[in-house]
Write a structure and sequence with these properties.
By secondary structure, the chain is of the alpha/beta class. The chain has 2 domains: 9-133 and 157-214, Spore Coat Polysaccharide Biosynthesis Protein SpsA, Chain A, CATH 3.90.550; 230-300. It contains 10 helices and 7 strands. 31% of the residues are buried. Bound molecules: uridine-5'-diphosphate and magnesium ion (MG). It comes from Lapillicoccus jejuensis.
């Protein structure tokens, strides 16, 4: 491989404390990448590992000249590690793959040839069999993806994770996004590039234990939800409207009761005032939420569209946010 030219393929691998799995990974990945016939680089992103991963990566870098190591100072999380790898990757196509061999490296060749023959920008790895995941993970994942799809209008598939191939144009578009806490599996479909899928069987983790404890999964869920939906911000507005209706009904009831002389003096006005003020406050909060939501989407800085083709100019892909 000529180090002066960009490779045809980059393989970005985020890893956090993966000392057990690294030797197995090299044994499977290297022959697979050689077999594609493409020039390639491996971008190993060490997400602040505290075990032997950094030392093993140094050795890997020495023994295999296609390997580049990017080390983050502290554990930044799976999505951030992938993002760092995407910035560093130079290939015409970039594949992101987990280190634990749950995503079979052999599928990379299939993704690359599909992208080339069909002229696709994105090829998603889709799990056709999740039997290696726990029932808890399968049920929560399915419910969660359908919730996000409904709230955000993205077309993300429930069985597509972060094993995918992306063209240079796609990776450049992602790298230009200024937003933090991004969840790539929802961002990529939202960008709208021509895409296809390759099915694969999700294997068991080859060695070691999951680096995704419940707390990290929860963060991913919150990031996905708040990154793609204003619905939580609208909660106050909805409660305010509900509270307003309730205040009116309560008011009518209280007036009737007081006319019929059934209540203590002062009760009517107290009930109506408390209900009305509560509703007004919630509505005002909701109003603030609407403006905060607008500021938030503006700050996320996502392109609102991509031009696929413009007959006036040469075919272009980027929107006006260049
Ligand atoms: N990972 C990472 N940083 C983290 C957690 C995980 O880079 O903070 C990597 C991990 O090394 C692996 C991938 O992300 O390559 C997926 O993690 P894992 O396999 O532990 O998740 P699971 O498959 O259990 O959901
Ligand atoms: Mg895994």
């Amino acid at each position: 491989m000529n180090p002066d030219t960009d490779p045809e393929l980059s393989v970005v691998i985020p890893m956090y404390n993966e000392e057990e799995v690294l030797p197995l990974l090299v044994d499977r990945l290297r022959p697979t990448l050689e077999a594609t016939g493409a020039t390639y680089e491996v971008v190993a992103v060490d997400d602040g590992s505290t075990d032997l991963t950094p030392a093993l990566l140094q050795r890997m870098h020495r023994d295999w000249d296609a390997v580049r190591v990017v080390r983050l100072r502290a554990n930044a999380g799976h999505q951030a590690a992938i993002s760092a790898g995407l910035v560093s990757a130079r290939g015409d196509y970039v594949v992101t793959i987990d280190a634990d061999l749950q995503d079979p490296p052999e599928v990379i060749g299939e993704m690359l040839s599909l992208a080339r023959t069909d002229g696709l920008d994105v090829v998603y790895g889709v799990r056709n069999d999740r039997s290696t995941d726990t029932v808890f993970k399968r049920v929560t994942a399915r419910a969660f993806y359908s919730l996000i799809r409904r709230m955000s209008g993205t077309s993300a598939q429930s069985d597509a994770g972060d094993f995918r191939l992306m063209s240079r144009a796609t990776v450049d578009a992602i790298n230009e996004l200024p937003e933090h806490n991004r969840v790539l599996r929802f961002i990529v479909p939202a960008l709208g590039f021509p895409s296809g899928t390759v099915e694969y069987r999700r294997e068991e983790r080859a060695a070691g234990v999951s680096k995704y404890p419940l707390l990290k999964m929860l963060k991913l869920s919150v990031d996905s939800l708040t990154g793609f939906s204003m619905a939580p911000l609208r909660l106050a507005t909805l409660l305010g409207i509900g509270g307003g209706v309730l205040a009116v009904l309560l008011g009518i009831f209280a007036v009737v009761e007081s006319v019929m002389g059934k209540v203590v003096a002062g009760w009517t006005s107290t009930v109506v005032i408390v209900a009305a003020v509560g509703a007004a406050q919630l509505l005002c909060l909701g109003l603030l939420g609407e403006y905060i939501g607008r500021m938030y989407t503006q700050m996320q800085g996502r392109p609102t569209y991509f031009i696929a083709y413009d007959s006036l100019a040469a075919p272009a892909r980027r929107g006006p946010t260049d």
